[in-house]
User: Which sequence fits this backbone?
C-alpha cells in the first residue's frame, strides 16, 4: 500500500466498511434462469461446497427468493441482484437496503451490464449498503471504469467485457490484458478492494485461467444454468477456482 | 357494453384475463415505509379485515417480503410493487413474473408515478402478467392516460393526479372531475376494467368520497404508515370503503 | 365516425390540434446516418419531390441540423427526431419545444423504438407540442399501443413491429394483419389521426404495398441512406407512395 | 505529480486529449431558459468578454441553436448541453458527436445533475468526444464522484452539490470543504484535468470566492438568466472571475 497514496484518504472519506469478503470468490449468478424451488435446490448444493472448500460463494437469486435461500443455507453469501439507493419511505417498486438485509441478504450486486446505473446512483447505493451493513459487488465494463468505481469505495469490483457476457468466449483467454489491467489499476487505488473478472467463463479451465491472471474471483451463470447437470458443472468450476487459488504464485 | 363497440375485439386481441378482482378494492401500498416483521404484522391485520368485510384488499410489500406475507395470510391479495417484462433467462436484477407467482404473489402494480415505465414496457408487462396468471393494476396520471392504458387490457387502472400523491389534499375533494372523467372514459372502453383513483386519501371520509364518485376502489400509504396506530387507521379507512360501497346508488 | 362514440369527447378533452398533415405522408428518417452538408443536400432533393408530387415529406435530421435544413427548403416538413416534455427553465440537455419551433421545425417524432418514452412523457410531450404549435408523430410497437397512443391525441401514429426495423423484411409483406389492425383500431378511436406503418420498407414495392393496406403514410431510413444513390432510391420510393395513393380504392 | 503514481498510465490508457482549455473558465449555461434570437444576443455579449478578458467562456445553448451561436461568435467555446455515446448509424433522437462538431460545437457537457448518465455512457461518451475532437465537461455530485470521473479522462470535471443547484446558497460559502476536497482528489489523480465547481453561484462575490478556493472555473445559469439585465450580470461575474484569478496565490 506504500505506493498508493490515496488509499488512506479514500478510506477516511467513505467511512467504515462492512467486514471484507476474503478471496477466492465465486459468484453464482441466477439472473432470471432459476427461481423458487430450483433456486433453493442449487443454493443448498452451493452451500455444501462453501463449507467444504476454501471459496466464498456469492449466490444471487431473484429478490423474492432471498428469504428461502437464506433460510436454507449457512455458508453461502446471499446477495441481491440489484438494490436501489432509496431510503425508508416513498419509492414504489424500489429495492430498499434495510428490507434486503432483514430478509437475509448480506450484500448486493450493482450496475451489471444488464442493469446499468447512473454514476450518482452507484455512489449513493454504495453509501446505502455501507450504512446498512451490506457488502457491494459493483460491475463495470472496462479497466478504466473499474478504477472509477474503486474511487467510490465498493467491497468488490467485477469487470466484464460486455461483448463476451453469455458467450462461449472467455475474457481470460480472449482479453488477458483486460483482466491484468483491471487488477493493476484497482490494486493501485485500494488493494483492499477485491477484483473479480468474468464474461464467457464456461469451463473449469476458464475459471482457473481467470484466477491465474491475478483476480480474487470470477463467476458464471449461463454455462451452469443451461448445463445438463447444473450442480455438477458448478461444482467442477468452483473446485477449479479453489485449486487455481492454492496453486497461484504466493498462494496458500 | 352495447355502446362500447371496441370491447369485444380488444378482448379477443389480448387473450384470456386472469379471474377478475371484484370491487370494492382497497390498495394498502407499503412502498418503502414498512418491511420485514412490521409488514407481516400489518398484513395479518389486513387479512382479518379482508375476511370480515366485503372488500378486496391489495397488499404490496417489498419484493423480499412477498413470501412471508403470502404465507401468513389467506384472503389478502398479495401484489408486487413492480414487475419487469423480462422472460426467464438473462436480466440481472429484473423482477420475473414466474418468480413472483411462485413466491405467492397474485398480481403486480405497474407504472406508479414513482416508478414510471415506457409505453412498450407497460404493454409487454401486462402481456407477461396475463401469460403467468398474475393480475395487473396499472397506474397513470390523468384520465387520458387511463384511457390509453385501458386499450392495453389491464385488470385495474389506478389514476392519481401526481401532484397530490403523499399530500393531505385528496383527489376526491380537490379534483372530482378527474375521478369522474376517468371512470367515464375507461368504462366506455371496457366496463370490465375496474377503475381506482387515489392520491391524498388520508381519512375514512376521503376514502368514502372517492367511492361515492363512482370508482371501484382506492388506496392509501403514507396516511396509514405514518399514523400513530397504523392498524386502527387502516381499519377505519377500509370500513369506510365498505360502507360507502354498500350505500352507493345501486349498491348491494 | 358514427360508430366511434368517445371521439368527440376525446377531441374536446385534448384541445385544438395543429393544422393536420394531409396524407399520403413519407417519413425520411435520418437517425444518425447523415448530418451537416449531407443532410442539407438530401433535404433539397426531398424538397423538390414535395413540390412536384402530392406527398407530404417529413424529414427529421439531427437537432443541430434543423436550422440549416429548414432554411434550405420550403415544402419539406422538418421534424425533430425527439423532443422532451420540459417547459422553459431548468433541464440541461433536454430538447425544448419552443426552441425547436423557433429553429424552423414544424413537428417532432416521439417514442421511436430506438428512443422509448414513458407513458407520462408521451402524454406530456404531446401536450407541449400542441401548446407550441408543433405536430406529433408518435411511434409504437403494436396495434394495441397505437390505440393507446390514439387516446392521447397525437396528429399521426406510426406503428412498427420492432423486430423488423432496419431489416429487409417489410411489415407490409410479413405482417399485413399488424398494419390492417392498426388502421382499424385507430380509425375507430379518431379517424382524423393519420396512421402510418413502417419497418423493413426497403423498395418502392414495399412502400406501395404498405399504402395499399390502408395506411396514410410510411417511411424509410436505412434502405435509402445506405443505398449507392440515396436521392434516386428516395425518389423511387416516394413516387411509389404517390402512385399507390392515387390508385388506392377511393383514391384521388 | 510525483505523488500521483497512476497518472502516466492513466494518460497512456486513454489516448491523446483534445487541446486543453486553459483556466480560468466560466460556464454560461443556458439550459432551457433562453433560445433562438435571445441566445444569440447573449452569446455575442459573452464573445466580446472572451476577447477582452483572459477568461475562457463555455456557452451551451439548446442543440438547435448551436449553429447560429457558433456562426455569430469567434472566441466563445460553444458546447452542447448533452451528447450521446452513439456512433453514426441508428439511434433516433440521440445526439451524435460528429453532427455537433460539424455544426460548430467544440465540446459537450455530460452528466449534469438534471441529466444523469450511466457510468458506462459517461465512459463511452468521453471516448466518442475524444475520437471526434470535442472537449468534455463531466458533471458530478461529490468529491468522490469527481475522482471517479477523473479516472475516465475528461478535460474538465465540474462538481456541484445537487441540493444547492438553482438556489441562492453558494457552494463556495456553504460547503468550502466540498470544493477543496474536489480540487485535492482530482489534482492527485491527474493535475492536467481542470476542476470546476458550481451551484448557487449568484453574485460576483460568489464567483470570486469559488476561484479563491482553488478551482479553475465556475459557472452560473439562473442568477444570470433571471436577472433584470442578464448581460450586465454576466459581465460582472466574469470580471470577478478574471480578477480573482489574477489575484490568487501564484496567479498571473
Assistant:
Amino acid at each position: 500500500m506504500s505506493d498508493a497514496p490515496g488509499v488512506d484518504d479514500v478510506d477516511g472519506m467513505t467511512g467504515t466498511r462492512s467486514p471484507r469478503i476474503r478471496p477466492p470468490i465465486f459468484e453464482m449468478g441466477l439472473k432470471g434462469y432459476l427461481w423458487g424451488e430450483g433456486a433453493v435446490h442449487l443454493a443448498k448444493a452451493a452451500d455444501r461446497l462453501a463449507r467444504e472448500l476454501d471459496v466464498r460463494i456469492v449466490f444471487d437469486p431473484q429478490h423474492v427468493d432471498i428469504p428461502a435461500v437464506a433460510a436454507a443455507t449457512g455458508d453461502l453469501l446471499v446477495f441481491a441482484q440489484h438494490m436501489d439507493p432509496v431510503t425508508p419511505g416513498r419509492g414504489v417498486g424500489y429495492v430498499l437496503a434495510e428490507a434486503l438485509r432483514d430478509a437475509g441478504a448480506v450484500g448486493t450486486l450493482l450496475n451489471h451490464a444488464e442493469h446499468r446505473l447512473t454514476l450518482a446512483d452507484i455512489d449513493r447505493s454504495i453509501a446505502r449498503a455501507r450504512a446498512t451493513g451490506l457488502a457491494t459487488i459493483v460491475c463495470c465494463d472496462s479497466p478504466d471504469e473499474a478504477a472509477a468505481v474503486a474511487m467510490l469505495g465498493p467491497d468488490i469490483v467485477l469487470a466484464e467485457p460486455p461483448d463476451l457476457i453469455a458467450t462461449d468466449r472467455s475474457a481470460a483467454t480472449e482479453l488477458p490484458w483486460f483482466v491484468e489491467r483491471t487488477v493493476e489499476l484497482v490494486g493501485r487505488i485500494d488493494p483492499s478492494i477485491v477484483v473479480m473478472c468474468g464474461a464467457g467463463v464456461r469451463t473449469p479451465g476458464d475459471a482457473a485461467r481467470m484466477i491465474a491472471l491475478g483476480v480474487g474471483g470470477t463467476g458464471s451463470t449461463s454455462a451452469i444454468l443451461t448445463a445438463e447437470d447444473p450442480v455438477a458443472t458448478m461444482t467442477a468450476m468452483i473446485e477449479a477456482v479453489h485449486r487455481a487459488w492454492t496453486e497461484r504464485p504466493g498462494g496458500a
In short: Residues 1-17 of chain B have pLDDT under 50 and may be disordered. The CA atoms of residues 89 and 96 of chain B lie 9 Å apart.
